[in-house]
Write a structure and sequence with these properties.
With about 170 residues, the protein is mostly helical. The chain has 5 helices and no strands.
Length: about 170
Amino acid sequence: MLVVRLSKAALVGALALTCTLVVYGNVTEPAVNLAFVQHVLSMDTILPDSGIADRAITDPTLQRGAFAMIVAGEAVTALLLWIGVALMLARLRAPRGDFDRAKTWAIAGLSVGFLVWQAGFLGIGAEWFGMWMSKVWNGQQSAFRFAMTVLGVMIYVALPEAEDPEAGRKG
């Protein structure tokens, strides 16, 4: 049971680290990822005869606002994941119910992360703004990879622990 709990904390920690590095890069060197958001929102590299180009957002203020919302979602994800890791580690040897409550923070962070990459990048970016049509500014593969990793870890973390066979024994 301890190994499984450590494993769950480690996998959440790995994603927390990744999200933290993503946020750090977006805050300290935003140019590349801001350019990505600007191109996706302006729809300037989608197929020229596409009938959805009227959805484009070309106002730089709105584009920067969208970028800030994405970074905020990534930061909330990282924060919730780190809290989850700390609580899971603090409750490694606690009764199952206590450890399960610690996992809720990680599950909340994983849920926010899934929403950022699935709903934000794959739903809004790829489908609404036609990112899938762009040969240059297409982040579908990266977003899908991250969304599926987050989802896999969420399923694993949410699985209940097996009963501790020693818990029911009397002395």
